Amino acid sequence: MMSDTSAPPAVSDAPLGGLPSADKTLLANAPLEVAICEVRFTAEVGSVPVETAERVRDALAKSLEVDFTSIQPAAQNTMEINLNAVGASWSGEETKGWQIASAQGHHTATVFPGSVIWQVADYERWSISMRRPLELLLGAIASDLFPSLVQRIGLRYVDRFVDSSCVKPQDWEGKIEASLLGPLCNPVFGGLVTSSQQQVDFALDGRHGAVLRHGPIPDPASRSVNYLLDLDVFANASELFKIDDVLGTAEKLNRTALSLFQACVSVDYLKALQGEGTS
């Protein structure tokens, strides 16, 4: 086991990839549906004892003051494709772990022998909703699973913008940044577009990247059109497992995700989400 018990290093406010610093004003009208953090690592054990899941549950419940009522077996399937002279062959493997969920299902922790996943649906702010739970999870696996190397750290934020006045995709002009709307703004056929899902890949530097999936999503229940921003920011590199380093990288990814998010909406719409101009 390798862990770092020294004081956390200072984390620069600057996002990765030379992106501009983000406005840290909390959103009064937050569109975030779910936030997810995953840390993948190599470990010396091939299974997760149920005692580890119990320890995670108790630590999360005490720190977050949330009732975690469920511990259930979890399975993760991986598949590898092998190409050879006679064709292709497939081999798969199932990894077993535990999922710890809150009573209302808004908080979920999943622990596998090679990864931990934290998911929250009632996000407040980074320090409360993500950093502290992640620190507890990393502490649990450090003492029980003996991780040696961190392979990947990823954050995913799924935002769904809802506006009853947007009854067609083109109504998101002026709210979503114009360069993202693409075909919706085409002067010839833009008015005919009913759906447009896009994926944008970013190379932030040699070890960090991001993927943005976005587009208008019809909502038959409200007879309106929502807009989805699904943002995944990640670090890919093999480094020694140190809790403070993982937390520092995750915080940089969070600042980067916030910068990208704010670049996806217009200035006026960001102010509206922050609550400016509302009573």
Comma- or semicolon-separated keywords:
2 domains, nine-stranded antiparallel beta sheet, globular, disordered N terminus
Would you write up a description of this structure?
InterPro entries: CHP04255 (IPR026349). It comes from Arthrobacter terricola. With 279 residues, the chain is of the alpha+beta class. The chain has two domains: 15-20 and 31-36 and 156-279, no CATH class; 45-77 and 92-145. 24% of the residues lie in helices and 38% in strands. It has five helices and nine strands. The chain has helices at residues 50-64, 126-144, 178-181, 243-263, 267-273; strands at residues 32-43, 68-84, 87-102, 107-112, 115-120, 147-161, 198-203, 208-219, 224-240. It has a nine-stranded antiparallel β-sheet with strand order 2-3-4-5-1-6-9-8-7, with helices on one face. β3 (87-102) and β4 (107-112) form a beta hairpin. α1 (50-64) packs antiparallel against α2 and α2 (126-144) runs antiparallel to α4 (243-263). The longest helix has 21 residues, at 243-263.
Quick summary:
This is TIGR04255 family protein. By secondary structure, the chain is α+β, with helices and mostly antiparallel strands.
Q: Using DSSP, what is the number of strands?
A: 9
Summed up, the helix count is 5
Q: Beta fraction of the residues?
A: 35-45%
Count of the domains? 2
Organism: Arthrobacter terricola
Protein name: TIGR04255 family protein
InterPro entries: CHP04255
